[in-house]
Amino acid sequence: MPHALASDGLLIDHFPAAQRSLRIAFVSETYPPEVNGVATTVARIVQGMHARHHEVQLIRPRQDRLDAAARQARYDEVLLRSLPIPRYPDLRMGVPSKRALVQLWSRRRPDVVHIATEGALGWSALQAALHLKLPVCSDFRTNFHAYSTHYGLGWLRKPIMGYLRKFHNRCACTMVPTDALRRELQADGFQKLTVVSRGVDTELFHPSRRSAALRESWGLNEQDLLVGYVGRLAQEKNLGTLLTAFEALRRDMPRALLLLVGDGPMRAELQARCPDALFAGQRRGEDLAAHYASVDLFLFPSLTETFGNVTTEAMASGLPLVAFDHAAAAQLVHSGHNGLLAAAGDVDAFVAASRLLAGDAEQRQRLGRAAFATAQALGWDGVLARFEGVLHGVITAAERSAEAEFGGLARPAA
Prior knowledge:
Elements: E1 23-27, H1 37-51, E2 55-61, H2 67-70, E3 76-80, E4 82-85, E5 88-94, H3 98-107, E6 112-115, H4 120-131, E7 136-139, H5 144-147, H6 157-169, E8 173-176, H7 179-187, E9 193-195, H8 212-217, E10 226-230, H9 239-252, E11 257-261, H10 267-273, E12 278-281, H11 285-293, E13 297-300, H12 309-316, E14 321-324, H13 327-332, E15 340-342, H14 347-358, H15 361-375, H16 380-410
Parallel strand pairs: 1-2, 1-6, 2-3, 6-7, 7-8, 8-9, 10-11, 10-13, 11-12, 13-14, 14-15
Antiparallel strand pairs: 4-5
Helix pairs in contact: 1-16, 3-4, 9-14, 12-15
């Protein structure tokens, strides 16, 4: 099989077009109808692997009332015990389940186990896969170690990072969405990293979804400025900077309105600080796409993303955006061409960029058109092919290792 080894000597980067169908056990602690970037991305990859004729077994926590509406007969779903997540009543987390997974995979061995999240269920899956000598790879999708500083628990950063490093270094490889994150984690002692980016649904998220009726329902005409944010309403999203920027630009444009799409524990606090903001709650599908496209300026102040799907969704919707030079924005936004970037953590620069675009409709339109053009090259086909190729590389490496071990054992003594 033609291949090229990565710097760690393990991962295979180039593959022939035709590859064998795989049995993939995909483990995730979040999945739609939960609304978050990890759930959305995991679902797209699971469905994409199924569409590419692989046998997918999805293992996730039971979501009780959500499951009846969510489950469809597309692939095998294994629902395991779960517990509610504090402060997020609609979300649940997995519990230790090694024994159940060992039994499950002993009856029918997958070719590879892929773990999307590092919680109790993910750790159980890792232990079960290692116990059964199954090839296993993982995703690094959430900066849990960075979240600790936003909840007065900065002292937890080192132990959390230690756990994550131990988790991922026991996998055959860990997929990360950007090269910047790969370098950052490598400096922290993470090994066997490979970049698999993320795509965006350019048919769903599109400027044509803009809705005059929706804007009218908010009391806006086409000349009024609507500033948008999409994401969890939580401390780790740096929403204080969002409000600071909006309050500054509103002094220049008193009729401007702020739309927040999403929910979370900070909602009441944000409503108290900005009582006339539009709180749309969680939105999905075409409704979410219409909310994006009906915005005039998108602000995304988060500094804790591993990628930030909302960045690409906003760009595909044709929105000019202001973000920090971080995660997906650092990779995709060329400041002054298809958006504006502020240096990571520079609140004054973020506020200044927001005021600049708020007051310049012509520049907003120019940046929005360029953002849309950038997003058109971010479809899912290439991402799925890359993901599929990495799985094949992990399996091939495991097979060669097993052959070498077996060969050594089988060789007669001299």
